[in-house]
Sequence to fold (507 residues):
Amino acid sequence: MKIQSAAVYTYERIVASLEAYRLFNPMTRANLQINRGLVDGEFSTAAIKESDGVVFQREFPVNLANYLAVMSQAANLGKPVVMDMDDDLLALPIHHPDRVKLNYAKAQIPILLGMVQAKALTVTTPYLADLLRKYNTNVFVLPNFLDDLLWHFNPPQVEPVSDKIRIFYMGTVTHVPDLEMLKPAFRALAMKYPGRLEFMFYGANLEFAESIPATITNCQSETFVYADYVKVALSQKANIAIAPVEDIPYNHCKSSIKFFEYSAMGLPGVYSRVTPYSLVVEEGINGFTASKIDEWIDALSQLIENPQLRESMALAAQDTVRREWLLSDHAHFWPETYAEIAELTTPNQAAIAAYLPVLEDITLHLDTFFRKQEPKDSDLSWHLQQAKQGLAEKIADNDVLHNRLDILSQKNNLLYTELDLVTKDFNKLFHEKANDDSIVTELKEQVDQLSVEWIDHTRQIQALEAENRVIREGWDASKLETAHYALSRSWRLTRPMRKFIKFFKGK
Fold:
């Protein structure tokens, strides 16, 4: 099946770097029609009908209601669904800023659900592919490439910028911990070459920079649009680039983007000796890699002292990118991969067998939980109809009903808190036991234990609803009161899970 168009769902309102690298730029270069499902923050499933397939990215399932709407529409129309991942988001480092941004404990299960339910995953590296195959057996590697229609290749800056050698770093605040590990190297170099160095950190404002006895320039990015970012990057004047990352499994999943971009800027680089860079750096030829602090100091010292080495290394790096890593030479990977996915007849067998039964068991208990907390939509319609008929004699019973509803709402809040704790426990257990063959058994035991508690709460709610039912039969719900009821906190809080349950049960 040939894929000529795709409905694309991301979590950004603009085409930032991640969307540009992974979706929009390669698909555009491959002449794939892109139908955006999110435009200026406005969500719609209309793009799915106009497309041959659906592609969503990373964190999109965190908005559970939108995600379920996309999956439901795609299933109804028979459109293949692909999830793109460029990080192991189920293993964010404890200090990663996205743990706060994503409300990490609650975000993991929707992301996991997206990976399991997608027909296939596309990822950036073989290392990440190996990690994510336990969630989806259909994993395809689509590497990152440099978009040579946006980037050009600057000539190396051999001579010092002004009267100083400028050591340049470009990256977001998520990489501040990576830079902090080089603090001893920065101080040692500043003392080794007094007055000769300038450290420029673009995008990551370092609090410790004041402790380095050298010229420090902290620059914050004024744009998040990727095309604008490229222009800013190419305008920078520097001599040497650095790309430190901690040697942890999470970072081994990353790609070599900084090598591509620094090379285009005409900068020789020193990179951490981890998987993304060890795959592209030829030691001492097109770059240096380093692990220990003294290795960083030695590599940077060589580049500081030798302008000819800076030039030859920068030119060699550019040659590597031109030969192997230009998007114009590899954009065809995207439509070819999507077409291969569309033709798959084998579902995600391993993941479905291992994980979906557990999720289904949990959802069944949640189904009982949420159904018993809230009246059905038909109940609300009934209230509105009764209001229109003007049964004024029952208005006096409103206060009684509201008292009952307040009690129910309080119980709802307690149960919702308990649900949150259950989710966290499940997430912790899942992550700890992900590679254990007994995961299903253990999780089901946990579910069975929790079901006893759910049943108890359900009985309490049923008893409370029985009391409410007598009052509801004669209640004249005015439009104002009905609107207040429909917009209650518990109704809003549980709306995404009602859609989740409905989708999971195939209703």
Remarks:
- The first strand starts at residue 5 and ends at 9.
- The longest helix spans residues 398-432.
- The mean pLDDT is 76.
